[in-house]
Specification:
There is one protein chain. The chain has about 220 residues and is of the alpha/beta class. It has a single domain, classed as TIM Barrel (Alpha-Beta Barrel). It contains 7 helices and 9 strands. A 9-stranded mixed β-sheet has the order 3-1-2-4-5-6-7-8-9. Helix 5 links the parallel strand 7 and strand 8. It starts with a strand and ends in a 6-residue tail after the last helix.
Length: about 220
Amino acid sequence: MIVNEIFYSIQGEGSLAGTPSVFIRLAGCPLRCRWCDTKYAWHDSAGEKHSPEQIKLDIGGHPTDHLVITGGEPMTTPHLKDFLAPFAKMHITIETSGIAFVPGLPCDLMSISPKLSNSTPEDAETARDHEENRLNLPALRQLIDTYDYQLKFVVDHPADLDEIADTLKALKNVRFDKVLLMPQAANLQEYIEKSRFLAQICKQTGFAFSPRLQLLLWDGQKGK
């Protein structure tokens, strides 16, 4: 498995925000979100080969049983099920855009962040490829039906709420308490500014607000 980085931190987003966790960032992602904060992990070769046994030795000293598999896009990584098997006794969160479904994974929380049109890059050719791949409703539905899940939507502007509503309507039967909104931000200042308007939106809609503690605490520093 090509791993971009392994680090120990606290979960910054979603329902488990604040939980000490080991993060394994896998290399490779078919999407090209314009505001992506891990572009360094886009390419399949952006890392080094690691075995699960080697990783277990490396992370064994940390006082947590929470493991977060992130990317990149883990769900498009070959042999993901085999890679995760040795970690099955840990609490495993998989962070994904929801563009692919893999059955039978040892996963305690499928943390899904469907990509809205606000993620589309400016370059025309890249944008075309991104648009073709960014939203896979059948895969999203399968993930929701199969795993315990949360849906995290990145909000850039208030107008994004209409697109979120359309996505939830298309998916059908999504549990309201599984939906979280989080601000799109590249740095701490932007995070603070957008969090204020998004908090008001959450009060109006009833959706939960997801923090991004990696920005609040470390201003998005790599490996934190």
